[in-house]
Queue: 3 jobs
Job 1
Amino acid sequence: MSDDVISLEGGLFEEPEEFVQPPPEPHFAHYQRKEVNGTAPSPSEVTLRLVGKSPLWGHLLWNAGIFTADYLDKNAASLVQGKRILELGAAAALPSLIASLNGAKEVVSTDYPDPELIQNIEWNFDNLAKEAEVSPYSVKGYIWGNDVGDLISSTEDEDNKFDLIILSDVVFNHTEHDKLLKTCRDTLKKDGKCLVVFSPHRPWLLEKDLEFFTRCEEHEFKAEKIDLVVWKPMFEEDEETAEIRARVYSYFLNPQW
């Protein structure tokens, strides 16, 4: 080989073994609340801290989370006020935060028990509580399908269960559908609802996403479609699938027991 040619096989640009890349810094997003019946909500803006990077995708503010927050603000009188609220897979917990601003009796916000994710949700609640009056809340690490003893004191006592369970952008976890539904079945009141919102991030697996709404029948739920809107897709890299990825589906799961 000529002396003028530099071989890259030796890892010329590789970092030394002792070098460790620092984790990405947290970053911030600002959610603008919309008027409801001509009345501007207060506070009008909610600041969210997002983790720097997460294999669980908690570092992004997704369209489904924004849609869910909008929907809770708009329908707070029937869905939130005086209700016990549980969010599963909360990530930055925007829907939980909006519920806490709308007079919920209690808000329990959960995600996978990763310390960074849980601490970040706590930061978002603590920060909001400095600016506005919020409902009583707790933040918990929880793995779907596990014992619900940390979420409710008894599965036999209806008063301890939740009136509304929020599942925002979690149905892409196809292998976890039964676990999600089991947790919902164990913790939801007989007259409660699950609010399920999602976007098809992998268009070729949309049918797998939608299977959640038939599989729910095995857990004594019946799906009720609320809406289908088309927004801007989160990522622009694939124009052919942009319209599908821009969709935001919303459903209720209604108990049948």
Job 2
Amino acid sequence: MPFRTSLFALLIIFASLARADEAVDVALITALQGEVARVTPQGRQPLQAFVKLKRGDLLALGKARLQIVYFESGRQEVWQGGGRLEVLGTESRSFGLADPAIKMLPAILVKQIARTPALDSQGRAGVIRLRTIASPEAVAKLEASYRQMRMEAVRGDLNPELFFLSGLFELRDLERVEQVLRDLQQARPGDAEVALLVALYQKAVKNAR
């Protein structure tokens, strides 16, 4: 058995033991094209965008593009190609992959992205704690931050929308969440990641009502 393969097999065993104690989410998949799976002793679990990751998760990439944001460090990694990743607390460790493109995101953006009611591995929308109904001033401040982020982001980057939707949802402005989802669908028809994000928040809004 090649050294890299045997090393990754050992990591799977160690990770399965550690996950019982490591229940804290440390990162979010914010974009994914291609095939990515979580590797466990029981087999592979296919992943999709907006699934949260835990310390010790082991990922297998098959000619994929994977974007991960780490909550504690604010580190955004974009991985491309085929290989393996181990999820650490603030960054990833790679096996057989080229170095990622790395960007450090603003704390205000990362804090809100971390509150995304992410899908679990079975595709169910998770629950986040909601604040009391927001004042118009709070919503206006959130929207101003979003507009600035959208101006600075590249086309196709959903980070500003993740920030805005999470903030609106946390502030219980559910009607505005639904409006943003409609706007996204109109602006990016046929986009698979947008469809996932819309489905995620539709479930979350339904559960919150």
Job 3
Amino acid sequence: MTTEVKIYKTLGSTPAVYAEVLDSDATQYEFELYLNRSLLEKAKHSHPNYLFRVKDSGSYYIVVKTDSSVLQSDCVAFSANELRPKKHAAEKDQVTNKLKGIKSIFDDINKFYIEIKTKKGSHSKLADEVSKLSADITLKEKVIDTSTFPAWHSIHDYEYYQITQLLDRLDVDDFCAQLEKLDYVIFCSITPLTENLPSPLASETPDKSDVQSDDTTVTPDFSALQTYLDEGLGMNIRSVWQRGTTGQLATIRHLDYGIYKNHEDFQEGNIHVVNSRDESNDCNHGTASTGCIAAGNNSFGVIGIAHSAAFYFYDTDDLDKIVQQANPGDIVSLDIQYTIANIGNLPMIISKSWWDAIKNLTEKQVIVLLAAGNGSLDLSDKNICRDYGDSGAILVGSCNSHNGDRRYSSNYGHYASLINSWGDSVVTTGYSSLQKLPGNNRNYTNTYSGTSSATPLCAGALALLQSHAKQRGVMLTPEAMKLLIESSDYNEAAGKGIGKRPNVAQLVKIIDSMVLPPLANVNPFPVSSGYLNYNLHLKINKDNEAKIHFDYRFSDIIDTGVVVYYDSVGPSELEWYTYGYSKINLPVIDEDGNTNVVYLKASKVNAAGRFTMNSAADAADESPGAFDLAISFSVKDNQHLGGTACKGVLPLYIKSDVYDEYNLPVRVNIFIN
């Protein structure tokens, strides 16, 4: 594997560039952000990625330094128009309610700890105050590795403390209320212990089959039974797979009630178990969820929705691990609920600590899904579901497989209830209603249900959307993902308080419309413009390059570079000079008339070397000068084409850094076969 740096533009109201280093085993990284060759910002990070916010138009690239290497990304260009924030009319303001003064809903728990969030530098004051309230209480600082958060994240302004010793539940409410009166205390949370939290009761999970097969049975291919993958009442996923998007470049971090990690359908190499309870416990719930998302694409069993994504499994007490380890653009799915006496099953945002951890994740630009819960409860009722404000997460409801309407058991009505999927008849790994063999590693079910099944189904769907976006050179933020979900036309549950079911094939087309020019293989230049016309041929089965020569040595035009007609294709403004390549996302049409995109690299090559295509500087001692526009094709970057021949039109301008009025249109007809 070759270590490389991928760079993405983020889709959202806050313009940013995101870099991630692939296939690196370094432990520390130094990221440098450049705009038109000028160093703007540096950041040291323990993760192989970093998100920089940007405010100026131009071409950006990132240099990454480790102990053993220096890597440089391609360039991404921002136009002035892209830097004008656009707020969606239906977007909910991200203003959070005060966490103070809202009594904990956990009146009946006896296994809990106290978590306290304060402004930075409050330790001595808090310790004194705690000792005044109770001399027997031991205050411990919660250790958080803030190096995994970007410099602009608010977590750097706060500290966290915990009290884990056994306390009388009756005294705790007053203790927390007293601490929350202090101006430097953000909240004091009575947080239930979730270590080895029991999976939902048998009445809420699939019944086990009484039919047991012999251990020599060959597991059949159940994928045809996974009708939630189909169009219509499913999520329209199979056609997206056929176009080459199966989860590559995406990461899912899933929290659940244990996993049978040696299940036969989990051995493809993309499933990583960070932590799971002992398998002497019932681990069917997490096993079923994992199959929905990440089961291998093989000739038996089931196929995970995002089977090419990196999948990380965590047990029910591992939220803090996820907060530390998750990266911008990751999909986090929290597939657990908490049962409150005399109320029912509720999502984990009812806990101040969980709400705050989720808010830290979404501020980090991690996309968070969590089960709305199976209680038939209206979550807009603040007496049922405490509202601490918008955490940025998305609540998942469940629908009926036969009509798409809200399933009777699904909670509903929260302003974050934006997405739903099947809450019955889900075919996946684990349990045993479809196949029961000795042990736990070859069983399958066709009755996984509730928000338990809907949550991983939606996580897989969103991972495909992120995968497709990153293949297009952009990354979806939590804000952008929410707006995308709202665009789904699978709205059978409209008005029922569980949001929309994702039509993945439709939504990837919307992503394309956001980042690609409106037409493929179309020339935007009129004949009267006097455009130059070139044909350029590239091979689809090998890495190769073709060039077009431009010669200004006998003209008055100096300092010329090449820019694209459409902002979404590549750089649309000149820069002085930057070594390297520019990324080109070219819409194309294949032999059957289908639209796709080809990822190319373009550079201006002259006597001084290889530069981004929009570099204006002439070679030393040669002004005006001559240069080649070099267009290169990489097999690795275009595996999604499947070897199918295609063609497209790349409209360009030759511009001068000196003469603003010089604007020569160039049509490049690109044939890839």
